[in-house]
Amino acid sequence: MNSLKIKEILDIQKENNNIKSIFFENKDKINPGQFFMIWIPSIDEIPMSVSYIKKNVNAITFRNVGYATNKLFNFKIGDKIGIRGPFGKGFNINGKRIIFIGGGTGIATLAPAIEKAYENNIKSEVIIGVKNKHEIFFENRLKKIVKKIYISTNDGSRGYHGNASELVKEIFTEENDFSIITCGPEMMMKKLYELYGSQPFQASLERYMKCAVGICGQCCVGNGLRVCLEGPVFDSKMLKEINDFGKYKRNVSGNIEYF
Ligand SMILES: Cc1cc2nc3c(=O)[nH]c(=O)nc-3n(C[C@H](O)[C@H](O)[C@H](O)COP(=O)(O)OP(=O)(O)OC[C@H]3O[C@@H](n4cnc5c(N)ncnc54)[C@H](O)[C@@H]3O)c2cc1C
Ligand code: FES
Fold first, then answer.
1. If you measure from the C-alpha of residue 66 to the centroid of ligand 1, how many angstroms do you get, rounded to a whole number?
2. Nearest in space to 61 (alpha carbons), one of 180, 154, 142
3. I want to staple 184 with a disulfide (CB 3.0 to 4.6 A). Which of 18, 76, 106, 148 is the partner?
């Protein structure tokens, strides 16, 4: 699992101006919420969640944000990348009703979990929170399997004018018969946790990753929980123990950066 495998890019999908999915063969079992370390030759190795789980084929879906993702954005079908993984613990998908809340690129991590919930006949609703309408992706993919998809945009260009955590409060005023699964900006997830943390709740955290196998300690949160091994998905009981959740993360040098 930890050995580097070289994979040819089988397909590339442009999801919006700044987001692409890259498909490659993977015969290893993988659960929604798990991630790969993607090696971009001569550039860097970076963590990416699995965003499509098909028979023998997986994909990652990424935003062009910096040096490595910018290089990857210009890769073509047939180019080669390295993968290690899958790593980490994925989502626990059970219960009768799940509200999935994806902020920004977070919906890429949630999409295979939403598909699994559909296969398991679990009633799902989806909230996609983005800055503006041009940032929305995977809406058409999810529309095929989810009846209720709500959109929030920070600038009001589509759907609810505001952020996803405010929208959830508006929609589910009286109800609490659901569990929450979320991935996105940590402050959004922290707000959701403050609102719904007493219900079944899972959040996928991001921390700077190096080894991804629990050895280097770079990704530690709370009292030594490794996001790469014990996470990246944490439930409400574990989140309660993580005092830095929604407060700070450590950068590549190990220094604290406040959210
Ligand atoms: C478990 C996990 C799953 C992720 N899944 C996705 C995904 O599905 N789609 C997606 O677009 N992004 C995902 N990310 C974030 C992605 O790894 C970063 O956007 C990417 O590494 C940026 O690299 P860069 O060189 O382009 O940008 P840089 O300019 O180097 O960095 C931009 C930001 O990315 C972060 N970053 C850079 N290198 C790493 C690293 N080795 N580990 C963690 N963070 C890093 C930096 O802290 C910085 O905040 C995930 C991160 C983690 C930890
Ligand atoms: S990245 Fe090394 S312990 Fe998690």
1. 9
2. 142
3. 106
Residue 192 to residue 152: CA distance in whole angstroms: 15
Residue whose CA lies nearest to ligand 2 atom number 3: 214
211 CB under 6 A from ligand 2? yes
CATH topology for 5-87?
Elongation Factor Tu (Ef-tu); domain 3 (2.40.30)
State the distance from the centre of ligand 2 to the C-alpha of 123, rounded, in angstroms.
35
Question: 100 pairs with which residues across the strands?
Answer: 126, 181
Residue 23 to residue 57: CA distance in whole angstroms: 7
> Which residue has tokens 């996105």?
184
Level-2 CATH architecture, domain 91-204: 3-Layer(aba) Sandwich (3.40)
Ligand 1 atom 25, closest CA: 68
| Tens of each residue's pLDDT in the chain, 259 residues | 789 999 999 999 999 999 999 999 999 999 999 999 999 999 999 999 999 999 999 999 999 999 999 999 999 999 999 999 999 999 999 999 999 999 999 999 999 999 999 999 999 999 999 999 999 999 999 999 999 999 999 999 999 999 999 999 888 877 778 999 999 999 999 999 999 999 999 999 999 999 999 999 999 999 999 999 999 999 999 999 999 999 999 999 999 999 9
**CA-229 nearest atom, ligand 2:** 4
Continuous H helices in 10-126? 67-73, 106-119
Q: Would you call 161 helix, strand, or coil by DSSP?
A: strand
**What ranges do the domains of the chain cover?**
5-87, 91-204, 206-259
Beta bridge partners of residue 54, listed in sequence order: 57
According to DSSP, the residues that pair with 155 across neighbouring strands are none
